[in-house]
Amino acid sequence: MARNPNQFFRNPMMQQQAVPVPGAKTKKYQMDKKVYVRLGMTHLLKTQWYWVFVPVGIIVLNIILNITKVYTNWWIYLIAFLVALGYVLFWAIQFTGISQLEQYKVMFDKFSYDINTKQINAMINAKEGMQIGWDMVKDVYKEKDAYTLVLSRGQFIHLPFNIFNSDNDLKFFERILRQKNLIK
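and the corresponding structure tokens:
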């Protein structure tokens, strides 16, 4: 007897049933561009704070050279300050510029989020959206009123507590973060 190649799909015992994955759902939320710039600068300062030692070290070295009268100058103080200020301004301009560019407009669309243990679904509407795997989340910051998920130096998902549909959704989301070792 010839075997029907579609027999697997007709046999109900062999078909897998779709199992709904429990998750946390949010209301639609649009990240403000000012919030994005603040998140970018906060993340930059939290991850690159150690660079402050370069101008401080140069200033301390200059103070030692001035006290010992090996090399007296005043301009190095100004240069060290201007270089540090320039670095911070450079990144502030970068984050502000990203928020204005057309190609990054999607980061500032209104999304509702469906969060489960496998992935984060950022949905524009019921049929359009994108999947973000948990392996893409590099870091998570808990603020007084929101969670910030860092995907890269310039990509963030900002989830205020008030966009979760219920306290249970927020607690489920926190449990997922603990399971993934993203928060303590």
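(Above: one complete record from the training split.) The beta strands are 23-25, 112-116, 119-123, 129-133, 139-142, 146-152, 155-160.
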